[in-house]
Amino acid sequence: MKTLSSRLRRYGLRYDDLYDPYYEVDIKVALNRLPREIVDARHQRLKRAIDLSMKHEYLPEDLQAMQTPFRSYLQEMLAFLIHILILLLVAFRSYYYSHSNTPLLGTK
């Protein structure tokens, strides 16, 4: 874990910055629901990391010390979205059973 932390600090990234919204739909939805300034800060960190990588450089030591690579900004929103999804599934199931005589697939 320490090596991951040091690698993220070198480029000024957070662990949540590593999630790709193009491959994970739940990440895309969570990013769309976050405040604009949090998403903008994420984009700035990613741009800075790409720039440093292309130049084969790292952040200065004083800035590396200020980084918080495991401070999450996505996990609460993802948990909220999962909670909403569960509520929708429960509501759908209740509605389905109250309006249909045939069972859902995979249930008895």
Structural class of the secondary structure composition? mainly alpha
Q: What is the overall shape?
A: elongated
So, CATH architecture of the domain at 2-72? Orthogonal Bundle
* Cα-atom radius of gyration: 20 Å
Helix content: 55-70%
* H-E order: HHHHH
CATH C-level class of the domain at 2-72: Mainly Alpha
According to CATH, what is the topology of the domain at 2-72?
A: Cytochrome Bc1 Complex, Chain F
On the 0-100 scale, what is the average pLDDT?
90
Kindly report the oligomeric state of this protein. Answer: single chain
> Which regions have little confidence, pLDDT < 50, spanning 5+ residues?
none
Overview of this protein structure:
Helices cover 64% and strands 0% of the residues. With 108 residues, the protein is mainly α. It has a domain at 2-72: Cytochrome b-c1 complex subunit 7 (Cytochrome Bc1 Complex, Chain F, Orthogonal Bundle), CATH 1.10.1090. The protein is built from 5 helices and no strands.
